[in-house]
Write a structure and sequence with these properties.
The protein has 466 residues and is α+β, with helices and mostly antiparallel strands. The chain is built from ten helices and 22 strands. The strands form four sheets. Strands 1, 2, 3, 4, 5, 6 and 7 form a seven-stranded antiparallel sheet that branches. Strands 11-10-9-14-21-20 form a six-stranded mixed sheet. A five-stranded mixed β-barrel has the order 8-15-16-18-22.
Length: 466
């Protein structure tokens, strides 16, 4: 995007006041977004974002400045603005480039978004919306959206890093509302992939997504309220992995650990989960929603085994976290765009596949809850305490799945859940989401096979007993 000479000039300007590390991040991103309600297009937007950010570190402190003007004068001014916040008597130099990582991408698309007409995008979400409408006359509204992005990222650092990454992502989202005149329930599906428009040939089925969203809404419309209590819970795969993401791995990010704000501080090498639990964050999975070739500090993305057979093996660590924690960098630095400084973040996070049979999980659990689809929730990284909604749940009686239940919530503590997992299924799959933190919102995959938690607090308004 800029010459090596200019990049070095900017990095050197950022070190003028005594910083010991400087970094220049540049991006150029093209985005398409289309939204639709009840088969009618409401918006069809194209945008392009271009800009740069300069970060300076001095020991464990950092300063960041950014600009949408990437001319030489503006970049130098931005570098000096960041440098002004950190001062020392030392004077560090920019190291020569260690390697040439230009024009890199984890996966180049077979069908670039630039070759796709809006009518093709609209046809996709119309297909999904139509499928949702066909499920039942009780589906009263369907909202659908489409997005794609082609993002070019360039990172230059005073430590000699010169990296580029081109990231392609696309996603559809379908939300269906069911109403019988008295009650309203909603179901949603939002599949996405880290590839070009070819994702809709083999990976994302708009028709199936629309149908599944509507079916959830219809199923929950007539379901009785879930009772409360402490019972065994089977959480299905895919987006069920939000439990791992929110209640556990946020507490393994340097963002929390370096500040002492995590229940897992100082526990490397210790047992924090049951023996059947192995948890991974892997940004190298080709074509996945959360994947990256290089992170936003220019380091190679990698597979990080966080927990292995119950033992905590590593945290997710960026450059600043590495300095504060004396822990190796894990290729996990991410940011929403050039207006944010990077920090440690997840990519594709999942429970590894186990050996247990799903039917056996249900058959031997007695009375409890089968959480087929998970919704959103909240968590406190310091304590691990969480509260998650179940979008679609079912009562299990005497080891058999019975009637659907609505309004269920799962309440607990991440460390307790990890220890209480006694079954892990044989097939893992992902659900796609956007994760927010101090470096903005980034695409992340959450995944797992079906898992069983021996005992978990279930909240609900139902009056019946388990």
């Amino acid at each position: 995007m800029i010459s090596e000479a200019l990049a070095n000039k900017v990095l050197d300007a950022a070190l003028e006041t005594g910083g010991d590390y400087s970094e220049l991040y540049m991006e150029d991103a093209e985005n398409n977004v289309i939204s639709m309600t009840d088969m009618k297009v409401e918006d069809a937007l194209y945008s392009r974002r271009h800009g740069a950010g300069v970060r300076v570190l001095l020991n464990g402190r950092s300063a960041y400045a950014y600009t949408a003007d990437t001319s030489e004068d503006s970049l130098i001014k931005t570098a000096r603005a960041a440098a002004a916040a950190l001062k020392s008597d030392a004077r560090y130099s920019v190291m020569p480039a260690k390697n040439d990582r230009e024009n890199a991408s984890l996966l180049m698309p077979r069908i670039p978004f630039s070759e796709v007409k809006n009518k093709e995008r609209i046809a996709l979400i119309k297909t999904g919306s139509g499928a949702a409408k066909e499920v039942s006359p009780l589906i009263t509204q369907v909202r659908a959206s489409y997005m794609d992005t082609d993002k070019r990222v360039f990172v230059y650092s005073s430590s000699g890093i010169r990296s580029s990454d081109r990231r392609f992502r696309t996603r559809i989202a379908i939300s269906a509302v069911a109403s019988d005149g008295n009650e309203i329930q909603t179901g949603s599906e939002s599949p996405g992939m880290g590839m070009g428009f070819e994702a809709y040939k083999n990976n994302i089925d708009a028709f199936s997504a629309g149908k599944a969203a509507a079916q959830t809404a219809i199923t929950m419309l007539t379901a009785p309220d879930c009772p409360s209590g402490c019972v065994p819970v089977v959480i299905d795969g895919g987006f069920g992995g939000v439990i791992l993401h929110e209640a556990c791995v946020h507490s393994l990010e340097a963002t929390s650990v370096a500040k002492g704000n995590s229940e897992f501080c100082g526990k490397l090498g210790e047992k924090i989960a049951s023996d059947v639990v192995t948890a991974v964050d892997d940004g190298t999975l080709v074509g996945e929603w959360g994947s990256i070739l290089y992170d936003d500090e220019g380091n190679k993305s990698q597979r990080n085994v966080l927990i292995e057979n119950g033992i905590l093996k590593t945290y997710l660590v960026d450059i600043l976290g590495s300095r504060l924690m004396n822990h190796p960098i894990t290729g996990s630095a991410r940011r929403q765009n050039y207006m944010f400084a990077p920090t440690s973040r997840m990519t594709n996070t999942f429970f590894a596949e186990g050996k247990d049979d799903f039917d056996e999980m249900i058959r031997t659990m007695g009375n409890g809850l089968y959480a087929k689809k998970m919704g959103g929730g909240s968590v406190n990284p310091l304590t691990g305490e969480f509260n998650f909604a179940v979008m679609e749940g079912y009562l299990v009686k005497d080891g058999k799945i019975q009637s659907p239940l609505r309004g269920a919530t799962l309440v607990g503590k991440g460390a307790d859940v990890l220890m209480n997992i006694d079954r892990v299924g044989q097939k893992m799959w992902f659900g796609q989401g956007m994760c927010g933190s101090i470096s903005g919102s980034v695409p992340t995959n959450v995944g797992q096979p079906p898992i069983r938690v021996k005992m978990l607090t279930v909240g609900g308004k139902g009056k019946t007993q388990w």
